[in-house]
Each structure stands twice: as C-alpha cells, then as structure tokens.
Design a protein that fits this description.
By secondary structure, the chain is an alpha+beta fold. It contains two helices and five strands. Helix content is about 25%, strand content about 40%.
C-alpha cells in the first residue's frame, strides 16, 4: 500500500546538487513526488511509494550527495497526493 512522506532536510544542502541527486535517487527507487529548496536554506521533499522505497529514500536523505553536510532530516507521514512522477521544483 502506498504511503506519503514529507522530508525536511537541514544542513549544507543547497548549492551541492541535493535536489538533482534526490530526484535521481527517487526515480531509481520508483518514487513519485517533488523536491525544492526552501528560503530558510533547507530542502523540502515529498515522496510517495511503498514503505520499503520510502525507508530507502530516508536513508539516502540522511547522507545526501557527496558535497552535502546533512544535519537533520525531519520526516512526517501524510495524505496521499497522487503524484505520477518525481519533479524538481524551482523557487
């Protein structure tokens, strides 16, 4: 059964290819959703898929791409939004 998770990633996560890398990882895992930079310097990500896929994404988010320095990942479960692909949103 599909679930919806919201991730807020804090640390050195902007300007280090976090969004592009997150999109690649989400697509590799078969997830649908969005990722965007936030004005406060964090990255916001929503993903939908099964529990195994979402847990793999959570593990990846805690590391991020090589140049990132992740300090915190807050994860919340929410209502399914019905995403059909994974997209990087611009501010």
């Amino acid at each position: 059964m599909a679930k919806h998770y919201t991730f807020r990633i804090r640390g050195k996560v902007q300007g280090v290819w976090y969004r592009a890398s997150a999109q690649r990882k989400a697509e590799e895992l078969g997830l649908c959703g969005i990722v965007r930079n936030e004005a406060d310097g964090s990255v916001y990500l929503e993903a939908e898929g099964d529990e195994r896929q979402l847990q793999a994404m959570a593990e990846w988010c805690r590391r991020g791409p090589d140049l990132a320095r992740v300090e915190e990942v807050a994860i919340e479960e929410g209502e399914i939004r019905g995403y059909t692909s994974f997209k990087t949103l611009r501010q």
